[in-house]
Design a protein that fits this description.
Length: 486
Amino acid sequence: MKEFLNFINGQYVKSASGSTFENRNPVNGSLIGMIHEAGKPEVDAAVAAAKAALTGDWGRISVTERCKLLDAVALEINRRFDDFLQAEIADTGKPHHLASHVDIPRGAANFQIFIDTIKSASTESFNMTTPDGRTALSYGVRVPRGVIAVICPWNLPLLLMTWKVGPALACGNTVVVKPSEETPATATLLGEVMNAVGVPKGVYNVVHGFGPGSAGEFLTRHPDVNGITFTGETRTGEAIMKAAAEGIRPVSMELGGKNAAVVFADCDLKVTIDTLQRSCFENAGQVCLGTERVYVERPIYEQVVAALKERAEAMTPGEPFDPATRIGPVISKEHQVKVLSYYQKAREQGATVVTGGGVPDMPPHLKDGSWVQPTIWTGLPETASVITDEIFGPCCHISPFDSEEEVLGKVNANRYGLATAIFTQDIGRANRVAQRIHVGLTWINCWFLRDLRTSFGGSKASGIGREGGIHSFEFYTDLRNVMVKF
Protein backbone atom coordinates (compact mmCIF):
# COMPACT_ATOMS: atom_id res chain seq x y z
CA MET A 1 0.00 0.00 0.00
CA LYS A 2 1.34 3.41 -0.98
CA GLU A 3 1.88 6.42 1.22
CA PHE A 4 1.46 9.91 -0.16
CA LEU A 5 3.63 12.27 1.87
CA ASN A 6 3.83 16.03 1.92
CA PHE A 7 6.81 17.46 0.01
CA ILE A 8 8.37 20.32 1.94
CA ASN A 9 11.76 21.97 1.37
CA GLY A 10 12.92 19.15 -0.87
CA GLN A 11 11.94 16.35 1.51
CA TYR A 12 8.98 14.02 1.91
CA VAL A 13 7.43 14.40 5.36
CA LYS A 14 4.61 12.74 7.25
CA SER A 15 1.92 14.59 9.10
CA ALA A 16 3.13 15.50 12.59
CA SER A 17 -0.33 14.72 13.92
CA GLY A 18 -0.36 11.30 12.27
CA SER A 19 -3.59 12.19 10.44
CA THR A 20 -4.12 10.26 7.21
CA PHE A 21 -6.98 9.60 4.82
CA GLU A 22 -7.66 7.11 2.05
CA ASN A 23 -6.92 7.32 -1.64
CA ARG A 24 -9.21 4.93 -3.53
CA ASN A 25 -9.28 3.82 -7.14
CA PRO A 26 -12.57 4.96 -8.74
CA VAL A 27 -12.50 2.04 -11.21
CA ASN A 28 -13.13 -0.64 -8.58
CA GLY A 29 -13.12 1.10 -5.19
CA SER A 30 -9.85 -0.55 -4.14
CA LEU A 31 -7.53 1.17 -1.69
CA ILE A 32 -4.49 2.70 -3.41
CA GLY A 33 -2.86 4.06 -0.29
CA MET A 34 -2.97 6.54 2.56
CA ILE A 35 -2.49 10.28 2.22
CA HIS A 36 -0.76 12.23 5.01
CA GLU A 37 -2.89 15.25 5.82
CA ALA A 38 -0.98 18.47 6.32
CA GLY A 39 -1.95 20.41 9.41
CA LYS A 40 -1.03 23.98 10.24
CA PRO A 41 2.59 23.04 11.17
CA GLU A 42 3.20 21.43 7.76
CA VAL A 43 1.60 24.34 5.87
CA ASP A 44 3.63 26.84 7.90
CA ALA A 45 6.80 24.89 7.13
CA ALA A 46 6.00 24.72 3.41
CA VAL A 47 5.31 28.46 3.17
CA ALA A 48 8.44 29.25 5.19
CA ALA A 49 10.53 27.07 2.88
CA ALA A 50 9.03 28.76 -0.17
CA LYS A 51 9.67 32.21 1.27
CA ALA A 52 13.27 31.38 2.16
CA ALA A 53 13.94 30.02 -1.34
CA LEU A 54 13.07 33.41 -2.84
CA THR A 55 16.19 34.90 -1.28
CA GLY A 56 18.34 31.79 -1.73
CA ASP A 57 19.84 30.23 -4.84
CA TRP A 58 16.53 30.37 -6.70
CA GLY A 59 16.25 34.13 -6.24
CA ARG A 60 19.78 34.71 -7.49
CA ILE A 61 19.88 32.68 -10.70
CA SER A 62 19.32 34.30 -14.09
CA VAL A 63 16.25 33.84 -16.25
CA THR A 64 18.32 31.69 -18.59
CA GLU A 65 19.44 29.38 -15.78
CA ARG A 66 15.91 29.19 -14.43
CA CYS A 67 14.57 28.21 -17.84
CA LYS A 68 17.23 25.51 -18.20
CA LEU A 69 16.06 23.96 -14.93
CA LEU A 70 12.42 24.04 -15.98
CA ASP A 71 13.26 22.54 -19.36
CA ALA A 72 14.98 19.74 -17.45
CA VAL A 73 11.77 19.28 -15.42
CA ALA A 74 9.79 18.83 -18.63
CA LEU A 75 12.32 16.37 -20.03
CA GLU A 76 12.29 14.38 -16.79
CA ILE A 77 8.47 14.18 -16.78
CA ASN A 78 8.67 12.77 -20.29
CA ARG A 79 11.48 10.38 -19.31
CA ARG A 80 9.28 9.10 -16.47
CA PHE A 81 6.17 9.21 -18.66
CA ASP A 82 4.99 5.74 -17.62
CA ASP A 83 5.32 6.54 -13.91
CA PHE A 84 3.20 9.65 -14.26
CA LEU A 85 0.73 7.82 -16.49
CA GLN A 86 0.23 4.98 -14.01
CA ALA A 87 -0.18 7.44 -11.13
CA GLU A 88 -2.70 9.59 -13.00
CA ILE A 89 -4.78 6.64 -14.16
CA ALA A 90 -4.83 5.05 -10.69
CA ASP A 91 -6.11 8.31 -9.16
CA THR A 92 -8.69 9.20 -11.80
CA GLY A 93 -9.64 5.93 -13.53
CA LYS A 94 -9.56 7.65 -16.92
CA PRO A 95 -8.84 5.56 -20.02
CA HIS A 96 -5.22 5.03 -21.03
CA HIS A 97 -5.74 6.63 -24.44
CA LEU A 98 -6.93 9.86 -22.83
CA ALA A 99 -4.29 10.19 -20.13
CA SER A 100 -1.46 9.26 -22.48
CA HIS A 101 -2.49 11.72 -25.20
CA VAL A 102 -3.66 14.65 -23.08
CA ASP A 103 -2.78 14.67 -19.39
CA ILE A 104 0.89 13.71 -19.30
CA PRO A 105 2.09 15.35 -22.55
CA ARG A 106 0.36 18.62 -21.65
CA GLY A 107 1.73 18.39 -18.11
CA ALA A 108 5.26 18.53 -19.51
CA ALA A 109 4.40 21.03 -22.26
CA ASN A 110 3.12 23.53 -19.71
CA PHE A 111 6.71 24.04 -18.51
CA GLN A 112 8.10 24.39 -22.01
CA ILE A 113 5.55 26.89 -23.32
CA PHE A 114 6.14 29.26 -20.42
CA ILE A 115 9.90 29.00 -20.80
CA ASP A 116 9.41 30.48 -24.26
CA THR A 117 7.05 33.15 -22.92
CA ILE A 118 9.37 34.38 -20.18
CA LYS A 119 12.34 34.56 -22.54
CA SER A 120 10.51 36.89 -24.92
CA ALA A 121 8.47 38.92 -22.42
CA SER A 122 8.98 42.67 -22.50
CA THR A 123 7.89 45.69 -20.50
CA GLU A 124 7.13 49.32 -21.33
CA SER A 125 9.48 52.30 -21.50
CA PHE A 126 8.86 56.02 -22.13
CA ASN A 127 10.98 59.14 -22.62
CA MET A 128 9.72 62.51 -21.46
CA THR A 129 11.00 66.05 -21.17
CA THR A 130 11.07 67.38 -17.61
CA PRO A 131 9.93 70.93 -16.69
CA ASP A 132 13.58 72.07 -16.46
CA GLY A 133 14.28 70.91 -20.01
CA ARG A 134 16.12 67.74 -19.14
CA THR A 135 15.13 64.16 -20.03
CA ALA A 136 13.61 61.37 -17.97
CA LEU A 137 13.34 57.71 -18.87
CA SER A 138 10.61 55.59 -17.29
CA TYR A 139 10.76 51.84 -17.66
CA GLY A 140 8.89 48.88 -16.25
CA VAL A 141 10.47 46.02 -14.33
CA ARG A 142 8.75 42.68 -13.75
CA VAL A 143 9.65 40.94 -10.49
CA PRO A 144 8.33 37.67 -9.01
CA ARG A 145 5.18 38.08 -6.97
CA GLY A 146 6.56 35.79 -4.22
CA VAL A 147 5.03 32.68 -2.67
CA ILE A 148 2.14 31.39 -4.78
CA ALA A 149 -0.52 29.05 -3.39
CA VAL A 150 -1.66 26.66 -6.14
CA ILE A 151 -4.99 24.92 -5.42
CA CYS A 152 -5.67 22.16 -7.96
CA PRO A 153 -8.71 20.14 -9.06
CA TRP A 154 -9.07 16.39 -9.56
CA ASN A 155 -10.31 16.15 -13.14
CA LEU A 156 -6.99 16.88 -14.91
CA PRO A 157 -4.60 16.75 -11.95
CA LEU A 158 -1.17 17.03 -13.59
CA LEU A 159 -2.22 19.19 -16.53
CA LEU A 160 -4.03 21.84 -14.49
CA MET A 161 -1.42 21.84 -11.74
CA THR A 162 1.52 22.42 -14.10
CA TRP A 163 -0.57 24.98 -16.01
CA LYS A 164 -0.09 27.10 -12.89
CA VAL A 165 3.24 25.86 -11.52
CA GLY A 166 4.99 26.22 -14.90
CA PRO A 167 4.48 29.98 -15.32
CA ALA A 168 4.78 30.66 -11.59
CA LEU A 169 8.27 29.13 -11.50
CA ALA A 170 9.25 30.55 -14.89
CA CYS A 171 8.57 34.01 -13.45
CA GLY A 172 10.82 33.30 -10.45
CA ASN A 173 8.19 32.62 -7.81
CA THR A 174 8.07 29.68 -5.44
CA VAL A 175 4.96 27.55 -4.95
CA VAL A 176 3.04 25.59 -2.37
CA VAL A 177 0.69 23.19 -4.15
CA LYS A 178 -2.46 21.79 -2.53
CA PRO A 179 -3.67 19.04 -4.88
CA SER A 180 -7.18 17.68 -4.63
CA GLU A 181 -7.57 15.15 -1.85
CA GLU A 182 -8.89 12.79 -4.53
CA THR A 183 -5.78 12.92 -6.73
CA PRO A 184 -2.52 13.28 -4.76
CA ALA A 185 -0.20 11.13 -6.86
CA THR A 186 1.25 13.21 -9.69
CA ALA A 187 1.79 16.38 -7.63
CA THR A 188 3.67 14.25 -5.09
CA LEU A 189 5.68 12.48 -7.79
CA LEU A 190 6.72 15.81 -9.27
CA GLY A 191 8.74 16.44 -6.12
CA GLU A 192 11.05 13.61 -7.15
CA VAL A 193 11.50 15.27 -10.54
CA MET A 194 12.33 18.62 -8.95
CA ASN A 195 15.02 17.01 -6.80
CA ALA A 196 16.39 14.94 -9.67
CA VAL A 197 17.05 17.94 -11.93
CA GLY A 198 18.42 20.17 -9.17
CA VAL A 199 15.61 22.65 -8.53
CA PRO A 200 16.60 24.31 -5.21
CA LYS A 201 14.87 23.20 -2.05
CA GLY A 202 11.76 25.12 -1.12
CA VAL A 203 10.91 26.19 -4.67
CA TYR A 204 8.27 23.47 -5.10
CA ASN A 205 6.26 22.25 -2.12
CA VAL A 206 3.17 20.04 -1.77
CA VAL A 207 0.73 19.84 1.13
CA HIS A 208 -2.14 17.36 1.19
CA GLY A 209 -5.52 17.76 2.77
CA PHE A 210 -8.99 19.21 2.48
CA GLY A 211 -10.46 22.72 2.46
CA PRO A 212 -12.06 24.16 5.61
CA GLY A 213 -10.07 23.44 8.75
CA SER A 214 -7.36 21.71 6.76
CA ALA A 215 -4.48 22.41 4.38
CA GLY A 216 -6.57 24.44 1.93
CA GLU A 217 -7.75 26.96 4.51
CA PHE A 218 -4.39 27.13 6.29
CA LEU A 219 -2.65 27.83 2.99
CA THR A 220 -5.01 30.43 1.54
CA ARG A 221 -5.17 32.33 4.84
CA HIS A 222 -1.41 32.27 5.40
CA PRO A 223 -0.08 35.86 5.62
CA ASP A 224 3.16 34.98 3.77
CA VAL A 225 1.33 33.74 0.67
CA ASN A 226 1.56 36.51 -1.92
CA GLY A 227 -0.90 35.24 -4.53
CA ILE A 228 -3.45 32.45 -4.96
CA THR A 229 -4.39 30.58 -8.11
CA PHE A 230 -7.28 28.14 -8.06
CA THR A 231 -9.25 25.91 -10.41
CA GLY A 232 -12.43 24.37 -9.03
CA GLU A 233 -16.04 24.97 -8.12
CA THR A 234 -17.43 28.47 -7.70
CA ARG A 235 -18.45 28.02 -4.06
CA THR A 236 -14.88 27.15 -3.06
CA GLY A 237 -13.62 30.07 -5.14
CA GLU A 238 -15.82 32.44 -3.16
CA ALA A 239 -14.31 31.15 0.10
CA ILE A 240 -10.79 31.59 -1.26
CA MET A 241 -11.54 35.16 -2.37
CA LYS A 242 -12.69 35.97 1.15
CA ALA A 243 -9.46 34.51 2.54
CA ALA A 244 -7.39 36.44 -0.02
CA ALA A 245 -9.04 39.71 1.06
CA GLU A 246 -7.01 39.48 4.27
CA GLY A 247 -3.76 41.09 3.21
CA ILE A 248 -5.16 42.14 -0.20
CA ARG A 249 -3.62 39.19 -2.08
CA PRO A 250 -4.36 38.82 -5.80
CA VAL A 251 -6.25 35.80 -7.08
CA SER A 252 -6.64 34.05 -10.42
CA MET A 253 -9.54 31.62 -10.63
CA GLU A 254 -11.12 29.35 -13.19
CA LEU A 255 -14.39 28.28 -11.61
CA GLY A 256 -17.53 26.37 -12.53
CA GLY A 257 -19.26 26.29 -15.89
CA LYS A 258 -22.50 25.28 -17.57
CA ASN A 259 -21.18 25.43 -21.07
CA ALA A 260 -23.41 25.53 -24.13
CA ALA A 261 -23.00 24.38 -27.71
CA VAL A 262 -24.95 26.17 -30.45
CA VAL A 263 -25.60 24.05 -33.55
CA PHE A 264 -26.92 25.77 -36.67
CA ALA A 265 -28.64 23.86 -39.45
CA ASP A 266 -25.85 24.56 -41.95
CA CYS A 267 -23.18 22.90 -39.81
CA ASP A 268 -20.94 20.08 -41.00
CA LEU A 269 -22.93 17.39 -39.21
CA LYS A 270 -20.12 14.84 -38.93
CA VAL A 271 -17.71 17.38 -37.44
CA THR A 272 -20.44 18.56 -35.08
CA ILE A 273 -21.37 15.11 -33.77
CA ASP A 274 -17.73 14.03 -33.49
CA THR A 275 -17.02 17.15 -31.45
CA LEU A 276 -20.13 16.95 -29.26
CA GLN A 277 -19.34 13.35 -28.39
CA ARG A 278 -16.04 14.55 -26.95
CA SER A 279 -17.26 17.75 -25.32
CA CYS A 280 -20.25 16.08 -23.62
CA PHE A 281 -18.80 12.72 -22.58
CA GLU A 282 -14.98 12.70 -22.65
CA ASN A 283 -13.33 12.18 -19.26
CA ALA A 284 -16.78 11.11 -18.02
CA GLY A 285 -17.93 14.69 -18.50
CA GLN A 286 -15.46 15.89 -15.89
CA VAL A 287 -13.98 18.72 -17.93
CA CYS A 288 -14.43 22.33 -16.86
CA LEU A 289 -14.87 23.27 -20.52
CA GLY A 290 -17.27 20.41 -21.28
CA THR A 291 -20.72 20.84 -22.82
CA GLU A 292 -23.85 20.24 -20.73
CA ARG A 293 -26.31 22.34 -22.77
CA VAL A 294 -26.79 21.73 -26.50
CA TYR A 295 -29.00 24.06 -28.55
CA VAL A 296 -29.84 22.86 -32.06
CA GLU A 297 -31.56 24.78 -34.85
CA ARG A 298 -34.94 23.11 -35.38
CA PRO A 299 -34.50 21.71 -38.95
CA ILE A 300 -31.76 19.31 -37.77
CA TYR A 301 -32.83 18.90 -34.13
CA GLU A 302 -34.15 15.34 -34.36
CA GLN A 303 -31.16 14.31 -36.46
CA VAL A 304 -28.67 15.61 -33.88
CA VAL A 305 -30.52 13.97 -31.00
CA ALA A 306 -30.49 10.59 -32.77
CA ALA A 307 -26.84 10.85 -33.80
CA LEU A 308 -25.60 11.92 -30.37
CA LYS A 309 -27.66 9.14 -28.75
CA GLU A 310 -25.84 6.61 -30.94
CA ARG A 311 -22.47 8.09 -29.96
CA ALA A 312 -23.32 8.14 -26.23
CA GLU A 313 -24.26 4.49 -26.33
CA ALA A 314 -20.93 3.71 -28.02
CA MET A 315 -19.01 5.13 -25.02
CA THR A 316 -18.08 1.73 -23.60
CA PRO A 317 -17.08 1.76 -19.91
CA GLY A 318 -14.32 -0.49 -18.68
CA GLU A 319 -10.82 -0.86 -17.31
CA PRO A 320 -8.43 1.99 -18.17
CA PHE A 321 -5.91 -0.18 -20.03
CA ASP A 322 -8.49 -2.05 -22.11
CA PRO A 323 -8.29 -0.63 -25.68
CA ALA A 324 -12.07 -1.01 -25.99
CA THR A 325 -12.72 1.37 -23.07
CA ARG A 326 -14.05 4.74 -24.18
CA ILE A 327 -15.18 6.14 -20.82
CA GLY A 328 -14.02 5.73 -17.25
CA PRO A 329 -15.78 6.24 -13.92
CA VAL A 330 -16.40 9.55 -12.22
CA ILE A 331 -13.83 10.45 -9.61
CA SER A 332 -15.44 9.05 -6.45
CA LYS A 333 -18.50 7.50 -4.85
CA GLU A 334 -19.39 10.92 -3.47
CA HIS A 335 -19.35 12.44 -6.93
CA GLN A 336 -21.27 9.48 -8.32
CA VAL A 337 -24.04 10.22 -5.81
CA LYS A 338 -24.10 13.88 -6.89
CA VAL A 339 -24.33 13.07 -10.60
CA LEU A 340 -27.00 10.43 -10.07
CA SER A 341 -29.00 12.89 -7.95
CA TYR A 342 -29.24 15.15 -11.01
CA TYR A 343 -30.24 12.19 -13.15
CA GLN A 344 -33.10 11.67 -10.69
CA LYS A 345 -34.01 15.39 -10.69
CA ALA A 346 -34.25 15.33 -14.48
CA ARG A 347 -36.78 12.50 -14.34
CA GLU A 348 -38.75 14.20 -11.58
CA GLN A 349 -38.89 17.46 -13.57
CA GLY A 350 -40.30 15.68 -16.60
CA ALA A 351 -37.29 15.10 -18.85
CA THR A 352 -37.39 12.67 -21.73
CA VAL A 353 -34.44 10.38 -21.11
CA VAL A 354 -33.05 9.77 -24.59
CA THR A 355 -30.37 7.41 -23.29
CA GLY A 356 -28.64 6.53 -20.03
CA GLY A 357 -29.89 7.94 -16.77
CA GLY A 358 -28.36 5.46 -14.33
CA VAL A 359 -25.45 3.14 -13.61
CA PRO A 360 -24.10 0.78 -16.29
CA ASP A 361 -24.11 -2.95 -15.66
CA MET A 362 -20.46 -3.67 -14.90
CA PRO A 363 -18.70 -7.03 -14.38
CA PRO A 364 -18.30 -8.18 -10.76
CA HIS A 365 -14.72 -6.94 -10.34
CA LEU A 366 -15.76 -3.39 -11.35
CA LYS A 367 -19.14 -3.11 -9.62
CA ASP A 368 -17.65 -1.15 -6.70
CA GLY A 369 -16.37 1.54 -9.04
CA SER A 370 -17.91 5.00 -9.43
CA TRP A 371 -19.71 4.40 -12.71
CA VAL A 372 -22.48 6.45 -14.33
CA GLN A 373 -24.02 6.19 -17.78
CA PRO A 374 -23.55 8.82 -20.48
CA THR A 375 -26.95 10.49 -20.49
CA ILE A 376 -28.98 12.72 -22.81
CA TRP A 377 -32.22 14.51 -21.94
CA THR A 378 -34.71 16.55 -23.93
CA GLY A 379 -37.97 18.31 -23.15
CA LEU A 380 -37.08 20.40 -20.11
CA PRO A 381 -37.66 24.14 -19.60
CA GLU A 382 -34.67 26.44 -19.15
CA THR A 383 -35.44 26.67 -15.43
CA ALA A 384 -34.80 22.95 -14.82
CA SER A 385 -31.93 22.04 -12.49
CA VAL A 386 -30.03 20.05 -15.10
CA ILE A 387 -30.01 23.12 -17.36
CA THR A 388 -29.07 25.71 -14.72
CA ASP A 389 -26.63 23.78 -12.49
CA GLU A 390 -23.16 22.43 -13.20
CA ILE A 391 -23.33 18.64 -12.91
CA PHE A 392 -19.80 17.69 -14.02
CA GLY A 393 -20.80 14.31 -15.36
CA PRO A 394 -21.24 12.68 -18.80
CA CYS A 395 -24.56 14.26 -19.66
CA CYS A 396 -26.28 16.97 -21.67
CA HIS A 397 -29.71 18.41 -22.37
CA ILE A 398 -30.62 19.12 -26.01
CA SER A 399 -33.09 21.89 -26.92
CA PRO A 400 -34.32 23.22 -30.28
CA PHE A 401 -34.20 26.89 -31.30
CA ASP A 402 -35.54 28.94 -34.21
CA SER A 403 -33.48 32.16 -34.29
CA GLU A 404 -30.16 33.69 -33.26
CA GLU A 405 -31.82 36.03 -30.79
CA GLU A 406 -33.68 33.17 -29.15
CA VAL A 407 -30.60 30.99 -28.66
CA LEU A 408 -28.42 33.89 -27.50
CA GLY A 409 -30.97 34.69 -24.83
CA LYS A 410 -30.94 31.09 -23.59
CA VAL A 411 -27.18 30.67 -23.67
CA ASN A 412 -26.52 33.93 -21.81
CA ALA A 413 -29.24 33.43 -19.18
CA ASN A 414 -27.00 31.11 -17.15
CA ARG A 415 -24.98 32.52 -14.23
CA TYR A 416 -21.83 30.86 -15.52
CA GLY A 417 -19.71 32.14 -18.39
CA LEU A 418 -16.78 29.85 -19.04
CA ALA A 419 -16.91 28.45 -22.59
CA THR A 420 -19.09 27.76 -25.59
CA ALA A 421 -18.87 26.05 -28.98
CA ILE A 422 -20.58 27.19 -32.18
CA PHE A 423 -21.17 24.98 -35.21
CA THR A 424 -21.93 26.62 -38.55
CA GLN A 425 -20.35 27.02 -41.99
CA ASP A 426 -21.36 30.68 -42.13
CA ILE A 427 -18.22 32.40 -40.86
CA GLY A 428 -19.94 35.76 -40.57
CA ARG A 429 -22.65 34.34 -38.34
CA ALA A 430 -20.08 32.37 -36.35
CA ASN A 431 -18.13 35.51 -35.48
CA ARG A 432 -21.26 37.58 -34.88
CA VAL A 433 -22.67 35.03 -32.42
CA ALA A 434 -19.30 34.41 -30.76
CA GLN A 435 -18.94 38.07 -29.84
CA ARG A 436 -22.37 38.16 -28.20
CA ILE A 437 -21.98 35.13 -25.93
CA HIS A 438 -20.83 36.06 -22.43
CA VAL A 439 -17.97 33.61 -21.94
CA GLY A 440 -14.19 33.63 -21.67
CA LEU A 441 -13.56 31.06 -24.43
CA THR A 442 -15.43 30.32 -27.65
CA TRP A 443 -14.73 27.59 -30.18
CA ILE A 444 -16.07 27.60 -33.73
CA ASN A 445 -16.45 24.14 -35.31
CA CYS A 446 -14.10 22.62 -32.72
CA TRP A 447 -13.64 22.11 -28.97
CA PHE A 448 -10.74 21.97 -26.48
CA LEU A 449 -8.35 23.36 -29.08
CA ARG A 450 -5.84 25.55 -27.25
CA ASP A 451 -2.96 27.76 -28.20
CA LEU A 452 -1.26 28.12 -24.82
CA ARG A 453 -0.13 31.64 -25.67
CA THR A 454 -3.73 32.93 -25.60
CA SER A 455 -5.89 34.03 -22.68
CA PHE A 456 -7.72 31.44 -20.60
CA GLY A 457 -10.39 32.13 -18.00
CA GLY A 458 -14.08 32.62 -17.35
CA SER A 459 -16.64 35.39 -17.00
CA LYS A 460 -19.44 35.92 -14.49
CA ALA A 461 -19.48 33.08 -11.90
CA SER A 462 -16.90 31.14 -13.92
CA GLY A 463 -13.89 32.99 -12.67
CA ILE A 464 -11.72 36.05 -12.40
CA GLY A 465 -8.45 36.83 -14.13
CA ARG A 466 -6.75 35.36 -17.18
CA GLU A 467 -3.83 32.98 -17.54
CA GLY A 468 -1.94 31.71 -20.56
CA GLY A 469 1.01 33.26 -22.41
CA ILE A 470 1.67 36.87 -21.44
CA HIS A 471 -1.49 36.87 -19.30
CA SER A 472 0.15 34.39 -16.89
CA PHE A 473 3.23 36.61 -16.89
CA GLU A 474 1.04 39.50 -15.75
CA PHE A 475 -0.46 37.54 -12.85
CA TYR A 476 2.70 35.83 -11.61
CA THR A 477 4.82 38.99 -11.59
CA ASP A 478 4.57 42.41 -10.00
CA LEU A 479 5.11 45.38 -12.36
CA ARG A 480 7.26 48.16 -10.95
CA ASN A 481 8.22 51.47 -12.50
CA VAL A 482 11.69 53.04 -12.48
CA MET A 483 12.20 56.68 -13.51
CA VAL A 484 15.65 58.05 -14.28
CA LYS A 485 16.35 61.76 -14.81
CA PHE A 486 19.44 62.67 -16.77
